[in-house]
Structures are given as C-alpha cells and as structure tokens.
Amino acid sequence: MELLLMSDTHVPARARGLPAELLERVPRADVVIHAGDWTDTATLDLLQQRARRLVAVYGNNDGPRLRARLPEVAYAELGGLRFAVVHETGPARGREQRCATRFPDVDVLVFGHSHIPWDTTAGDRLRLLNPGSPTDRRRQPYCTYMTARAATGRLTEVRLHRLAAAPGPPGGF
Start and end of every Calcineurin-like phosphoesterase domain (predicted)? Predict the structure, then answer.
C-alpha cells in the first residue's frame, strides 16, 4: 500500500496551489494523508476528487467550514497498521512519551503544525511522522512531503521528499 503524507498546505495564504510534483503523486497513492492546516476548502475538494482514499484532519488555522467536514483526529487501519492523524502534538521535547500515552493503540502517528519534518519512534512501538509542509518551509531549507509503504503490519520505505518552492500566494508576500 503506497502512502502519500502531507500537512500544512496553507493554500492560498502561502501558495497558489499544491506543487505539481505532489499533485502528480496523489492519484498514484493508495492513501493520501493530510495532517491539517489546509486553510481552504478548495484544496480539500481537490484531494477528495483525485485521491483513491483520503485520511485527513483539520488544523489550528482551519475555520468552521473545514472543521465541519474534517475530524480533529482521524484513525485508519492501513496495511495491517493502526494509524492516527492529528495536527498538533505539542512541543518537541517529550513528544514521543506524550504521544505514546495519548495514542496507546496506534502504530503510526502522522502529525503536522511545526512545518518541521520528523521521524522518530516512541520506545519500540509508536512511529511518529511529520511530513513538513509542501508549500511553507518556514525555517527549513526545503518544502517537503513524505511517502511510505504499509504492508503486512510493517511500515517501510519512509522517504522525505524535497520540493522546489511552491508558487507564491496571489500578490506576493
């Protein structure tokens, strides 16, 4: 099962749209995961139309229209693994233990908010993944997203992809 992970797209505030490279991957992925901070319903509509399956949540910058359509936390079984998706997990310090306590029955937690890519394991059980942002790199050298494979209860080929800068917002910054 091919997974495509993204978060913090912030369209149209930070970019006119999703990068072409990312959009090309959407219909090829078995599951697209978005960890919140869309800021527009058009991007949600686009991914719902193009993705085979979308697992998504709202983020702190998402207004009532997105919150009405998306949960704060999403759960899915993918490739024999129990996934949870949430936007915020709190400060980096203590994240693994905090998330292991909050999500005791989960194998993989996908989160966003910081725009900082993250791949760690809490103990020997919970894998924590933050794909960064494909449109707003903030203090990071690149915009990013992740891909992975889930099968027979294992997560493999987790890869962070670097992107060229996304098209800027209308009117510039």
Answer: 1-149
How do residues 14-65 score in pLDDT, each as one tens digit?
888 999 999 999 999 999 999 999 999 999 999 999 999 999 999 999 999 9
How many structural domains comprise the chain? 1
What distances in angstroms separate CA 57 from CA 20, 21, 159, one per listed residue?
22, 22, 22
Q: Which helix (H) or strand (E) holds 20?
A: helix 20-25
Residues 6+ positions from 8 with CB-CB distance below 8 Å: 35, 36, 37, 59, 112, 113, 115, 132, 133, 135, 136
Residue 171 neighbours by CB under 8 Å, 6+ apart: none
Which residues span the domain enclosing 52?
2-163
pLDDT above 90: residue 167: no
CATH assignment of the domain containing 95: 3.60.21.10
Could you give the dihedral angle defined by the CA atoms of residues 1, 118, 137 and 56, in that order, rounded to the nearest 10 degrees? Answer: 50
Q: In this structure, is residue 9 part of a structural domain? A: yes
